[in-house]
Design brief:
The chain is of the alpha/beta class. It folds into two domains: about 180 residues, Rossmann fold (3-Layer(aba) Sandwich), CATH 3.40.50.300; about 100 residues, 2-Layer Sandwich (GMP Synthetase, Chain A, domain 3), CATH 3.30.300. About 35% of the residues lie in helices and about 25% in strands. It has eight helices and ten strands. The strands form two sheets. Strands 1, 2, 3, 4, 5, 6 and 7 form a seven-stranded mixed beta sheet that branches. It has a three-stranded mixed beta sheet with strand order 8-9-10. The chain starts with 7 loop residues before the first strand and ends in a 16-residue tail after the last strand. The relative contact order is 0.14. The chain binds guanosine-5'-triphosphate and magnesium ion. Guanosine-5'-triphosphate (GTP) binds next to helix 1. Magnesium ion (MG) binds next to helix 1.
Length: about 300
């Protein structure tokens, strides 16, 4: 094998404020939807590893819960998962929503911690959402951020349109170290199917239910097995609500809201797995559930 044919492997954490577009960018780099996305804040609840391949490199992309002011025990576990991602990655990519008004003090707080927590890891800066940010703002943001922290590179991308994403992927692939691939060439994520299926339903809940409600809801996949005819997958899930009052809202008039959530989730799962999917959803009340230890999704893949 010549030098340039040698396999390369490494990991990259995407961190930053909630809603910056980390999950959208993870999916764009992987080339498939493995992380759920929403216009609401606090969507990603635990580390999700996506796997991308470019040339001889296998890149593990660690998508993380975005930073926000934690209020509950559950919130604190989410933020801790984001910081933990820096423990074993080669590159820390700090992602910013460049279309939002820029506040250096807010970023400085995160940067100080990033500098402290990234021992060996290289730091890169990604200004996202350039499709709706004025160009002169981008240059000013890049200059201020680079004054505050030494980034090896700064990228300007739109994870939504894909603009600039290929440059990031090429840079990451080139930066990986020589070494065997840890995952199979076909693998897109380390997320178990049951958990991915629960996430897809949660995404529909974020899209359909308003205001604060999605933050008080969790999904558990109770059953995931080949369907009786052997041609597809049969899934049943519980939508866990913390407050009894939320039940009629999740169900909707004559169960219509739940029906739409189920249909959309089933279609998405069927597309992802490329086979028919039967999905049954139940709603269950568990008081103060998000304050309990078993609510924390401590999956490590
Ligand atoms: N216009 C535009 N919108 C984007 C872009 N990237 C992401 N978004 C939108 O921004 C919102 C948040 O995207 P996510 O990928 O869920 O953000 P996140 O950083 O993973 O958020 P958390 O999981 O809460 O930390 C969604 O509505 C996306 O469609 C982009 O490049 N341009
Ligand atoms: Mg996310």
């Amino acid at each position: 094998m010549s030098g340039s044919d040698k396999k390369k492997f490494g990991a990259v954490a995407l961190i930053g404020a909630t809603n910056a577009g980390k999950s959208t960018l993870t999916n764009a780099l992987v080339g498939e939807k493995i992380a759920i996305i929403s216009h609401k804040v606090q969507t990603t609840r635990f580390q999700i590893r996506g796997i991308a391949i470019q040339d001889n490199s296998q890149i593990v992309l660690v998508d993380t819960p975005g930073f926000f002011k934690p209020r509950r025990k559950f919130d604190r576990a989410m933020i801790a998962a984001a910081w933990q991602s820096l423990e074993d990655v080669d590159i820390c990519a700090y992602v910013i929503d460049a279309s939002k008004p820029f506040s250096m003090p807010k970023h400085q707080e995160y940067l100080d911690k990033i500098i402290k927590e990234t021992n060996e890891a290289e730091r890169i800066l990604i200004l996202n959402k350039v499709d709706c940010a004025p160009r002169k703002n981008l240059l000013a943001i890049a200059a201020k951020m680079n004054e505050a922290c030494s980034f090896a590179r700064t990228f300007m991308v739109s994870a939504l349109t894909g603009s600039g994403v290929a440059d990031v992927k090429t840079y990451l692939a080139d930066s990986m170290s020589e070494g065997d691939w840890v995952y199979g060439g076909e693998d897109l994520t380390t997320l178990p199917d049951r958990l991915l299926a629960a996430e897809i339903t949660r995404e529909q809940i974020y899209a359909r239910l308003h205001k604060e409600l999605p933050y008080h809801i969790a999904i558990e996949t109770e059953n995931y097995e080949p369907s009786e005819d052997g041609k597809g997958i049969s899934i049943s899930q519980v939508i866990i609500i913390e407050d009894r009052k939320h039940k009629p809202i999740v169900l909707g008039k004559q169960g219509q809201t739940l029906k739409i959530i189920g249909t959309e989730a089933r279609q998405e799962l069927s597309r992802l797995y490329d086979c028919p999917v039967h999905l049954k959803l139940f709603v269950q009340h568990r008081q103060n559930w998000l304050e309990k230890d078993e609510a924390f999704l401590s999956f490590e893949g």
